[in-house]
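Complex record, four chains
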Amino acid sequence: MEIHELQEFLSNEFPQSSVRIEALGELGATVRQRIDQSHLRPGGTVSGPVLMTVADVAMYVALLNRIGIVPLAVTTNLTINFLRKPSAQRDIIGVCELIKVGRSQAVGEVALYSEGNDEMVAHVICTYAIPRPDLGSISS
Amino acid sequence: MEIHELQEFLSNEFPQSSVRIEALGELGATVRQRIDQSHLRPGGTVSGPVLMTVADVAMYVALLNRIGIVPLAVTTNLTINFLRKPSAQRDIIGVCELIKVGRSQAVGEVALYSEGNDEMVAHVICTYAIPRPDLGSISS
Amino acid sequence: MEIHELQEFLSNEFPQSSVRIEALGELGATVRQRIDQSHLRPGGTVSGPVLMTVADVAMYVALLNRIGIVPLAVTTNLTINFLRKPSAQRDIIGVCELIKVGRSQAVGEVALYSEGNDEMVAHVICTYAIPRPDLGSISS
Amino acid sequence: MEIHELQEFLSNEFPQSSVRIEALGELGATVRQRIDQSHLRPGGTVSGPVLMTVADVAMYVALLNRIGIVPLAVTTNLTINFLRKPSAQRDIIGVCELIKVGRSQAVGEVALYSEGNDEMVAHVICTYAIPRPDLGSISS
């Protein structure tokens, strides 16, 4: 899949999000969140919800690139460990690596960085349910 | 602590957030996120990051109410299970129950609901690190 | 389902385990692990793996009681927070509450206690995949 | 640290465990659990608690190798995703990579494999609390 195709889909699905896709591959994806004042907390750090959002989108993008655009794929579990204070002056880079893509479930991990620093600011494990065409909904 | 005091602190700490505190107690807190178009995904559901944000704030509020306003308390781990599709027409209610509040760490759980429906839409476990006065920072 | 039926099934499925079922209900189950020397670590505390095992079994029992004996139900995610040092002299009691039982997935939480002390020693969230008759295996 | 020193400590701390240390490095550790009948469930697979135990030990070993033998280091959170059915005929190999080792907390991930197969059977994130000499206990 081309980056621009998936970016377009993403912008429709998450109109509030400004996450940009940087790279796509069989095994994962890299995304970037430009950081501005709206993402910060007093004291000058990126807020936790911003990090969780970037991770969720990175996983979504990596998965859709692998299985095709399946709008009903939904996050079922997300586990985040916050490790270091992100820089307020740097974009957040999310690097997703798919661990398993099965018929009905996918698991991936996302490493989050402040751009230019190779120490992870947060680590995320994400599980997605993949709907089956014949079943309508995966929610129950 | 009075709700309005904590609400004021919250509005300064998370200026982007519109979460409102509904109730405070020794064992927890209840918060509300009014849902509008900016919180939705196409297809009419509340986006995952909105749910994660409400949970994080509910835990923060419950903890600060218990230990006093300690601005440096930070989330260290958040684990969310998405259970059901939230309603696009209903506010999200977050009910936090503190499981343990220790000297250096606190753990709580948050149940998230679409208002008026008693089936949980998501369940969250949240861990906070509580800084110690003599140590300056808890981040390392 | 009767406790003795499920206990018998459990003893066959987990022959190494000595967990006993104490109570069963629509919404959950209570189990007990008798603690002896083989469950302890030096310094006199119950080892982490013992706690994880009790939680996993408590969830399994609660789920099977609800959906019938489906031997292929498998844990997909388990998240445990260790909260306090369990007593070496007390049995471990696991109280599982089912949060959601859907067609293909179930989520529950388990509170673990040292008997006679109402402060939780560990808190667990557990996700099970429920196989569908027509699909043979849920593992991929 | 030499493998045999840490192995000896481990055998004292976890006398029930037969996990063997295979490799130690600045960034992590590799361990092996020989699989015999006592680790299996009917149907021929390694039980979940065995996998959790191997992961916990792999993290413990990697951490102690890095910070020195600190017997009071304790797991605070363990999150496991079960991905594929392990082989009943193969040993379980656990590969721990430390993500962060701070003053008071360490986070690592552990990939678990059936020996000879490079598809992960389970993925674990583990958080340890590191006690501070002056504080006696980190548990509250």
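Note: Chain A has a mean pLDDT of 90.
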